[in-house]
Specification:
- The structure is a homodimer of 657-residue chains.
- With 657 residues, chain A is mainly alpha-helical.
- The first copy, chain A, is built from 18 helices and no strands.
- The longest helix of chain A has 72 residues.
- The two termini of chain A are 40 Å apart.
- At the A-B interface, α11, α12, α14, α15 and α16 of A face α11, α12, α14, α15 and α17 of B.
Chain lengths: 657, 657
C-alpha cells in the first residue's frame, strides 16, 4: 500500500501547483477601468449562473444521496457526495481563474503576444491541474480508506452527474446567448460581434466560460474518473490489490508528466502559439510513456500492460488528429463545404452533414484498433488500462483547452473596450490557436469517452456477475434498440431546448433595442443582467427533463428486462452515442470553419450569398458541437454508472431474469 | 406438399390480375397530342434510365453469379439469378404501367376526380400485385424443386442487390433532377414548377417514376422476400417442412386479401381519396387476419403462431400511423417547424432535425413490443413470423404507394399541357392523398425492414451454427462498432453523390437558359434529353462506390474477425441503420410539409422570409427522405444476406475463430 502514497502525493502536488499558478495569474495587472468594468460584468454573470446552477445541483445531489442511502449503502452515498464536491469544485475553481485570466490576458497583450500567451495558458492550466489533482487525490484517499473499488463507484457517479449538468446546462446556456446575440445583433440590427450595445453580449461572453471552461473540464473530469474507477474494478477482480492500484499509479505518472509539460510550454518570438500548445502535448505524451514504463517495470507488472497503455495513448492522438482533419480550415472537407455554399444554404448543410458522418469512420477505426490491441495484450483489463493510458495526459489536454475560452474572452474585452487594432490582432492569433486545440480536444474527449464507456461496460458485467451479454436473446436486442434511441432523443431534447431558450432571448434583445431610448446610438446602457438571467433560467429548465428521462429509462430497462438486457441497452447507447457525438462535433466544427474560410475572402467573402449560406450552416452546427455532441460523452458515462451502481438492487428486484 | 400448390396458384393468380389491370389501364384514352407528347418524353427518359441501369445491373449480376458459382454452389447461383430477374421484372413492369397510367389519369381527370382515381390506383396495383405474385410464385416453385430454404437464400440476395441499386440509384436520380429543376427554375429564373421551359422538367418527372415507383417497389419487394426466406429457414430448422411452408402459406393469404382489397377500393363522390386508400388497407388487414387464422387453424399449427402474425401486423399499422403523426401537416411537429421558420433557416433545420430524432422513439418502441410479443408466443421463429405478418399486406401497401407518383406525374402533364384550373385542381386533391399514403408507407417499409433484418439476424446465427453473439467479447463489440458506422457512411456517400450530381445538373440547366435563344420566351424547346442523361449517368456513378464498399466491409469483417464478430457487425448496422432510416425519412417528410403549411398562408405564406427558410429545410430533407433514408432498409437486408450467403466460406477461411 506504500505506492498509494505516490498517488496521493502527486495529487496534492498537482493541486499545489494549480494554486501557485492561480496566485501567479491573479497578481497580474487587470488593466484600465473600462476593461475591469467589462470583465466585472462577465464575472457577475458567470457567478450568477454558477450560483443558480449549484443550488439546483445541491438539491439534486441531496435527493440522490438520500436515494443511495435508502436503497444502497452508506459508503456509496458518501463517495457519491465527495465525487460531486470534487467535480463541482474543480469546475468552480477553473471558472474563477478563467474570469481573472481573461482581462489580465487582454492587458498583457498591450505588451505583445508573447506576454499575453502565458497568462492565458497558466489560467487554463489551473483548471487542468486541479481536475487531475482532485481526481487522483480523491480516489487515492478513498481507496486507502475503503480498500474496495466497488464502494468508490459512487465517486464516479457523483462526478458524472455533476458533469452532465455542467456540460449540458453550460451548453444550452452558451448557445442560447450566442444565437440570441448574433441573430438580433449581427443580422437584424447590423452591429458587429462583441459590440457593447448588444444586450446579449455579456451573456455571450459568460457563455464561453460556463460552456467551454466549466463544461469541457467537467466532461473530461468525468471520463478521467470513470476510466480510473472501472480499471480499478476490473484490476481488483482479476489481480487483486496490485491490479486496482496500477490505474492510480499510471494516473499519478500522467499528473507528473502534465505538471512538467505545463512549465515547458512557451511561445518563441514570432511563433504560432498553436505549435507551442501542440509541443506541450507531445512532450507530455513522451514523458508519460517513460514514467509509465518505469513504474510498470519497477513495480514488477507484466510489460503487456505497458503496451495496452500505449495503445490507448496512440489512439487518443490519432483520433485527435483525424478529427482535426475534418474540421481544419486548411483541409479539403471544410473547403468543399465552403465551396458548396455558393449553391445555397441547403447544399452547404447537406455537404457538412455528409462529411460529419464520414468523419466518424477513422475515429471508430482508431477506437476499434486500440480495443483489439489492448485486449490482445491484456484482456478486458487491458482495454480498461488503455482508457487510462489515453486519459493520462488529461492535465495537459484540459490546460490547452481551457486556454481557448480565456483568449476568446480576452479578445471580446479588447473589442468592447475599444483597444487598438494591433492588440486585437495579436489576441486574434492567440484565439485561432485556441480553436485548433479545441477541435483536437473534442476528438480526444470523445475517443476517451468511448474507451471509458467500453471499460465501464466490461466492469458492469463484472459487477452484475454475468458471463455474457448475448444478442441472440430477444430481450437483449430489445434492450439494445432502446439504448440506441437514448442518445438521439437526448440530443434532440437539448437542441429543442436551445431553440426555445434562444427564442426567449431573441424576444428580449429585440425588446431592449425597441424600448431603451438611445441604445442604438450608444448613449444608453443595455440591461445585460436580464439577458444573463434568461439564459441561466432557461438552461436549467431545459437540461433537467432529458437528463432525468435518460436515467429513468436506464432503471426501467434494468428492472423490467433484467441485467443482461440492461447490458444490451448500454451497448446500444454506446454505439449510437459515439456515432452521434463524433458526427455532431465534427460537422459543427466543419461548418464553423467553412464560414471562417469564406470570411477570409474565398467564394465572394463576407457578405456574399455564399457567406449567408455558410452562416446558416454555422448556426445549425453551433448546438451540435457545443451543446448536444459533447454532452453525449457524459450521458454515456452517467447511464453506465447508474446501471453499475444500481446493479445490486436490479439483481434483486428485476422482473425478467 | 400439396398445400404448396395453394401458394403457387395464389402467386399465379396475382400475376394474372396484374396483367388484367395492365390491359384495363392501357385501353384507356391517352388524351390530346400535346399530352401524349409530354408523356412520351417522360417515357423515353425513364426507359433510357432503365436501360442503362439494367445494363449495369446485368454486368453486376453476371459477376456476382460467377463468384457464387466459383466459391459456393450451383443452386445458390441459380436462385440468385432468378431472384434478380424477378426483382428486375417487377420493377420494369411497374414502371411501364406507371408510364401509361400517368397520362391516362390526366385524361380521365377531364371527366372528374372519380374517373381519374381508378386509373391511377389500378396502375399502382399492377406494381403491387406483380411484386407479391412474383415473390410468392418464385419462392413456391423453388422450394418445391429444392426442398431446402438454405438454397433459396440466393433468391433473396438477388432480389436485395437489385433493390439496392434500384432504390439508391433511383433516389440519386430523382433528387438530382428535383434539385436541378427547382434551384435554377424556381429560384434563379423564377418560372413555376413543372414549367415546360425548364430543361430539367422531364428529368424531374422521370425521377418520380424511377425513384418512387421502381425504387419503393423494389425496397418492399426485397423486405418481403427476405422476411419469407428467413422465416422459412428458421421454420425448417425448428419444425421441419411444415415450419418452412407456413410463411409461404401466410404470404399466399396476404396475396388473396390484397387482390380482394384492391377491387374494393373506390372513391365515393365528394370523398377524400386518401380515405378510400386507407379503407383499402384496413379491409386488407382484416381479410388477411381472417384468412391467416383459417389457414393456421385448418392446417393444425399452434395458435400462438397466429398471435405472432398479428403482433407484426399491428406493429406495422402502429408504426405507419406514428410516422404519419410526425410528418402530417395537421399535427404539432410540422406546425412547430413551420413556426420556427420565422426565425430563419437555421432554426427551421434544428427543429426539424430534433423532431426527426424524437420520431424514432415510438417506432422503435413498436418494433420492440412486436419483437417481445412474438418471441413470447413462439420464440425466434415467432419473430420471423411476425415480420411475415407485417409484410403480408405488401400487395395493398405497394398499390396505394405506387399510386402517388402516377398522380404526381399526371398533375405535371396537366400543367405542362396547359389544361384548365379545374382539372389541375382535382389532380391536386388526388396528389395530396398520395402524399399521406407515402408517409405511412415509408414508416411501414422501415418497420417491416426492421423486423425482417431481426429475423435475418436470427437466421444468420442459425446458418453459421453459433449459439450466441456475446457482446462481452471484444471482437464482437468491435464488429458492432464497425457495423454501426456503415449506415451513416453509406448515407453520407449517397448524399454527397446527390450534391455532386445536382451541381452538374444545375450547370447544364443554367447553360441552356444562357445559350438557347428564345428558351425563356417559350419560342424554343429545351434539350430535355441532355438533362435526363446527366441524371442517369450520375446516378449510376454515385451509387456503386457506397454499395460495393458496404458489401466489401461486410466480407472483410467476416473473414478477419470471424462469424461471431460478424453477428455483432450485423447487430450494430441494424441499430444505427434503423435509427438513421427513421430519422431521415421523418425529418425529411416534416420539412416538406412545414413548407407546404406555410404555402397554405401561415406565417406570411409563399414568398415570405419564413417560406424561404422552409424551402431550405425542404431541400435538405429531400435526399434524406427520398435517397438516403429509404435506401438504408435495403442496405441492411443486403449486408445481412451477404453475411448469410457467404457464411459457409467465412466459416472455413476466417482468421479469428
Amino acid at each position: 500500500m506504500d505506492v498509494l502514497m505516490i498517488v496521493i502525493l502527486s495529487g496534492l502536488l498537482s493541486i499545489l501547483v494549480a494554486l501557485y499558478l492561480f496566485l501567479h495569474v491573479s497578481r497580474r495587472e487587470s488593466g484600465s477601468e473600462k476593461m475591469r468594468e467589462i470583465a466585472g460584468a462577465i464575472r457577475e454573470g458567470a457567478i450568477a449562473f454558477m450560483k443558480r446552477q449549484y443550488t439546483a445541483l445541491g438539491v439534486f445531489t441531496a435527493a440522490m444521496t438520500l436515494i443511495l442511502l435508502i436503497f444502497l449503502d452508506r459508503e456509496t452515498a458518501l463517495t457519491y457526495v465527495i465525487g460531486s464536491l470534487c467535480s463541482a469544485s474543480a469546475g468552480y475553481f477553473g471558472m474563477i481563474v478563467a474570469l481573472k485570466a481573461n482581462v489580465r490576458t487582454t492587458n498583457a497583450a498591450l505588451e505583445g503576444l508573447e506576454k499575453a500567451f502565458p497568462v492565458a495558458f497558466y489560467g487554463g492550466a489551473v483548471m487542468g491541474l486541479s481536475i487531475v489533482g482532485l481526481a487522483v487525490l480523491g480516489l487515492g484517499v478513498l481507496y486507502r480508506i475503503f480498500g474496495d473499488p466497488n464502494l468508490i463507484l459512487g465517486f464516479s457517479l457523483g462526478a458524472s452527474t455533476i458533469s452532465l449538468f455542467a456540460k449540458a446546462g453550460g451548453g444550452v446556456y452558451t448557445k442560447t446567448a450566442d444565437i440570441g446575440a448574433d441573430l438580433v445583433g449581427k443580422v437584424e440590427v447590423g452591429i458587429p460581434e462583441d459590440d457593447p450595445r448588444n444586450p446579449a453580449v455579456i451573456a455571450d461572453n459568460v457563455g464561453d466560460n460556463v460552456g467551454d471552461v466549466a463544461g469541457m473540464g467537467a466532461d473530461i473530469f468525468d471520463s478521467y474518473v470513470a476510466s480510473l474507477v472501472s480499471a480499478m474494478l476490473l484490476g481488483a477482480a482479476y489481480y487483486g490489490v496490485s491490479g486496482a492500484i496500477l490505474p492510480l499509479l499510471l494516473a499519478a505518472m500522467g499528473v507528473i508528466a502534465a505538471i512538467i509539460g505545463v512549465f515547458l510550454v512557451r511561445v518563441r518570438r514570432g511563433e504560432d502559439p498553436g505549435k507551442a500548445l501542440n509541443r506541450g502535448t507531445y512532450i507530455t505524451c513522451l514523458l508519460f510513456s517513460i514514467l509509465a514504463f518505469a513504474v510498470i517495470y519497477l513495480q514488477g507488472y507484466d510489460l503487456n500492460l505497458f503496451y495496452s497503455t500505449i495503445a490507448g495513448l496512440v489512439a487518443g492522438v490519432v483520433i485527435g488528429v483525424t478529427s482535426d482533419y475534418f474540421t481544419s480550415i486548411n483541409r479539403r472537407p471544410v473547403q468543399v463545404i465552403a465551396e458548396s455554399s455558393q449553391t445555397g444554404a441547403a447544399i452547404n448543410l447537406l455537404t457538412g452533414f455528409s462529411y460529419g458522418l464520414i468523419s466518424i469512420v477513422p475515429s471508430i477505426v482508431g477506437i476499434c484498433a486500440a480495443t483489439i490491441a489492448a485486449w490482445f495484450f491484456a484482456g478486458l483489463y487491458g482495454i480498461a488500462i488503455s482508457a487510462v493510458g489515453m486519459l493520462s495526459i488529461t492535465g495537459m489536454i484540459v490546460s490547452s483547452d481551457a486556454y481557448g475560452p480565456i483568449v476568446d474572452n480576452a479578445k471580446g474585452i479588447a473589442e468592447q473596450a475599444g483597444l487598438e487594432e494591433e492588440v486585437v490582432g495579436s489576441l486574434d492569433l492567440l484565439d485561432a490557436a485556441g480553436n485548433t486545440t479545441k477541435a483536437i480536444t473534442k476528438g480526444f474527449a470523445i475517443g476517451a469517452a468511448a474507451l471509458t464507456v467500453l471499460s465501464l461496460f466490461a466492469s458492469y458485467a463484472e459487477i452484475v456477475g454475468i458471463e455474457r451479454i448475448d444478442l441472440m436473446k430477444p430481450h437483449v436486442i430489445v434492450g439494445a434498440f432502446i439504448g440506441a434511441f437514448i442518445p438521439p432523443l437526448f440530443s434532440a431534447m437539448l437542441i429543442l431546448g436551445v431553440g426555445r431558450n434562444a427564442f426567449r432571448m431573441i424576444e428580449e434583445v429585440r425588446r431592449q433595442f425597441r424600448e431603451i431610448p438611445g441604445l442604438m446610438e450608444g448613449r444608453a446602457r443595455p440591461d445585460y443582467a436580464r439577458c444573463v438571467d434568461i439564459a441561466t433560467k432557461g438552461a436549467l429548465r431545459e437540461l433537467i427533463p432529458p437528463s432525468l428521462l435518460s436515467i429513468a429509462i436506464t432503471l426501467i430497462v434494468g428492472f423490467v428486462l433484467g441485467v443482461e438486457a440492461l447490458g444490451g441497452y448500454l451497448a446500444g447507447s454506446i454505439l449510437t452515442g459515439i456515432v452521434f457525438a463524433l458526427y455532431m462535433a465534427n460537422a459543427g466544427g466543419a461548418w464553423d470553419n467553412a464560414k471562417k474560410y469564406i470570411e477570409e475572402g474565398y467564394f465572394g467573402g463576407k457578405g456574399s450569398e455564399a457567406h449567408k449560406a455558410a452562416v446558416v450552416g454555422d448556426t445549425v452546427g453551433d448546438p451540435f458541437k457545443d451543446t448536444a455532441g459533447p454532452s453525449l460523452n457524459t450521458l454515456l458515462c452517467v447511464i453506465s454508472l447508474v446501471a453499475s451502481t444500481f446493479a445490486p438492487l436490479i439483481l434483486r428486484y428485476t422482473l425478467l431474469r
